Amino acid sequence: MIRIVGIERCEDPGREFVLLQNQGSMRVQLRGHVLLADAFIDGQDACPAPFIFNEEVHIYPGAYVLLRTGAGESKWTVTRDGGRIFNCYMGKTGSHWIKLGQTLHLLSAHHSYTERPVVPCG
Asked: pLDDT (tens digit, 9 = 90+) per residue, 100-120?
């Protein structure tokens, strides 16, 4: 189960981030998780769109995900204390989370379905 464990709001998109952690006992696929604010759910016009994770990575139990607002290349790194952290980026040129002073939600995909290819008869 991935949870939000911290947020750093900042005018500088290079220093603004949301920190997530897999607090469950099983690895979790990051792809399909969505971060959004209450204001988006309420339909407020000035609210930025949700962020959808599209990386095909598994987050292991106890591992962290650091979503930075700025640009960069997604990759795994090791923290000073030896923990694993997946760094990913929104690619924004301005701050994103500083505008949202309210609650953030992390949504996850509970089920996915893919059609099987049809094999021609005969």
From this structure: 667 888 999 887 888 888 887
Distance (Å, whole) CA 48 – CA 40 = 7
Here the tokens at position 82 are 């030896």
Instruction: Specify the pTM.
Output: 0.85
Q: What is the DSSP letter of 114?
A: -
- What CA–CA distance (Å, rounded) separates 1 from 28? 7
Per the listing, tokens 């379905």 go with 113
CA-to-CA distance for 24 and 112, rounded, in angstroms? 20
In one letter, which amino acid is 103? T
Q: What single-letter DSSP state applies at residue 99?
A: G
Residues in the chain: 122
Going by C-alpha positions, the residue among 80, 45, 85 that lies closest to residue 64 is 85
Q: Supply angle C-alpha 34, 39, 43, rounded to 5.
A: 95
At residue 97, the 3 state secondary structure works out as: helix
